[in-house]
Amino acid sequence: MSRAFRSCSDFRAHRAGNAGNAEFFSAPPASQTALSLVHWYTEANQTRVPPVVELIQASKTYSSNGSVVYAVREADLALEPGSFTAIVGRSGCGKSTLLNLAGAVDLPTSGEVRIGEQSTCRMNDRDLSRLRRTRIGFVFQFFNLLPTLTVLENVAVPLWLDRKNMAGDLEQRVASLLDLVGLQAKSRHFPHQLSGGEMQRVAIARALVHEPALVIADEPTGNLDSGNAAVVLGLLERINREMGRTVLMATHSREAAEFASRVLAMRDGRPVNS
Fold first, then answer.
1. Which of 62, 105, 118, 186 could crosslink 100 through cysteines, CB 3.0-4.6 Å?
2. Residue 174, phi then psi, degrees to nearest 5
3. Domains of the chain
4. Which of 7-11, 30-34, 165-169, 245-249 is predicted most confidently?
5. Are strands 84-88 and 262-267 parallel, antiparallel or unpaired?
6. Beta strands at 214-218 and 246-251: parallel, antiparallel or unpaired
7. What is the rounded distance in angstroms from the CA atom of residue 219 to the CA atom of residue 232?
8. Which spans in 78-208 are helix H?
């Protein structure tokens, strides 16, 4: 019988207690394909695949004039593999802070954030940097492309940071991603030669090049016109649906949020059902 668990710790304890249970560790049916494997495990036992990211009573506070200000307050959030979640809310409601916690850019003041089965609070700066570099892709509102690098070189930056050689399969990966976002013909261009929509598409390719488990997009259409925004949102939906990437997006636009399969609203520092 499947059961739900509140946290990854609860799941691991249950798994250890079922070490001799053949049903718990049973193999998937032979008819299952690799693409449907995660879905089979989830359906067979809701706890077999831990969330890509899980916030457990996570809070982030700041001090202002001697008072404690909550940017995020006791937030609970689990992102299942292959999900597309949008966080909506006005400016200053805590959306970006929530994304920073989920992306290991910031640490909670209290509570816990788990990425896979790793608690960010128990990691040093070097481990956090490696976690972000290998497991998470970021898409920012203002693109954050390096102006002295070409489009191809900007996409390859995460590979260089991970000291991977740009040859063979990796070079083909960059070319394939530029083809995915429709910019292979502009691979030798520099950012100043691109439109805003094109720069954001380069940023999406860069976020995917190291094959992350999670893509975090913070107001990815906030600096774009409606036409380019629709293209960017369509790409995010496509990489979620066709590539199976888990996507977490913050937006103030309800229209943008409609591209996600789950929409949550920030209320009193917590993500709640919209």
1. 105
2. -60, -45
3. 8-44 (no CATH), 82-106+124-273 (3.40.50.300)
4. 245-249
5. parallel
6. parallel
7. 11
8. 95-102, 125-135, 151-161, 169-180, 196-208
Beta carbons within 8 Å of 100's beta carbon, 6+ residues apart: 106
Question: Which positions ≥6 away from 52 have C-beta within 8 Å?
Answer: 79, 80, 81, 83, 115, 116, 213, 214, 246
- Choose between 161 and 208: higher pLDDT: 208
Sign of CA dihedral 87, 134, 193, 147: positive
DSSP state of 201: H
Contacts of 250 (CB under 8 A, 6+ apart): 86, 87, 88, 89, 95, 96, 98, 99, 217, 218, 219
Rounded Cα distance between 273 and 255, Å, is 16
Relative to beta strand 110-115, strand 53-64 is: antiparallel
CA angle (39 as vertex; 33, 40 as ends), nearest 5: 70
Give the angle subtended at the CA of 59 by the CAs of 53 and 65, to the nearest 5°: 145
Q: Is 216 helix (H, G, I), strand (E, B) or coil?
A: strand
- What's at 224, amino acid-wise? L
CB-based contact 271:264 (threshold 8 Å): yes
Token representation of residue 245: 């990437």
Q: How does residue 172 score in pLDDT terms, banded at 50, 70 and 90?
A: confident
Q: Greatest CA span in the chain, whole angstroms? A: 63
Spatial separation of the C-alpha atoms in residues 242 and 182, rounded to whole Å: 16
Rounded Cα distance, 190 and 209, in Å: 18
